[in-house]
Amino acid sequence: MDYSHTDAELIRQPVGYWSWATYRAVVSRTRAALAELGTTQPQWWVLAQVARAATPKTRAEVSGLLRDYLDTGPEAMESEIDATITAGWIVQTAPDDRLALTPEGRTFFERAAAVQDDLWKERHAGISDEEYLTTMQVLQRFIRNTGGRAWHH
C-alpha cells in the first residue's frame, strides 16, 4: 500500500496509531512465517536465547529475560519453554535447570533463523541504516517522554 500523505499532513498524524499499525503488521507477518515452520514467535525467542547464549542459561534466566515480551504474564513464557521441550528442540538438564539445544533443535533453529533473516530484509527494503537508527531513537524518546518502559535484549 502506498501512503500519499503530504509532509504537512504526516506531521500531524498520531504516532500511537502508526506505531501500533507498524507493530501489528510486523508481528502478524513474523508470526505467520514462523507458523509455516510449525512454531510460535515466543518459541523462537526461547530458541534464540538458548542457541545464542555464550554459556548455557537456566530456565529461570530465559524466562526472566523474555517474560516482558508477552503481555500475558510469566506463566505464558513458561508454557512456551515447555512447548520447545515437548517439541524436542530443547532439553532441560538436572539439577541446575540449564537449557540446551538438541541436534534437532539446532537444525530447527537454523531454519527459523534463516526465515528471520529473510523477514529482516523484507522489512528493511528501501530503508537505510541511518533511517532505521533515527526511527529507533525517536521511538525510544517517545517512550521516555511519556514515562513508559521498554526493554529489549
Describe the protein's architecture and organization.
The structure is a single chain. Strands 1-2 form a two-stranded antiparallel sheet. It has 153 residues and is mainly alpha-helical. The chain has a domain at 38-142: Winged helix-like DNA-binding domain superfamily/Winged helix DNA-binding domain (Arc Repressor Mutant, subunit A). Helix content is 63%, strand content 4%. The mean pLDDT is 90. The chain is built from 7 helices and 2 strands; from the N terminus they run αααααββαα. The radius of gyration is 18 Å and the shape is elongated. α3 (41-51) crosses α5, α3 (41-51) packs across α6 and α4 (59-66) packs across α5.
Strand order of the main beta sheet, please?
1-2
Shape: elongated
Rounded mean pLDDT is 90
Derived from helix and strand composition plus strand pairing, the structural class reads mainly alpha
Distance between the termini: 31 Å
Q: Whole-number radius of gyration?
A: 18 Å
Number of β-strand runs: 2
CATH fold label of the domain at 38-142: Arc Repressor Mutant, subunit A
Named at the architecture level, the CATH assignment of the domain at 38-142 is Orthogonal Bundle
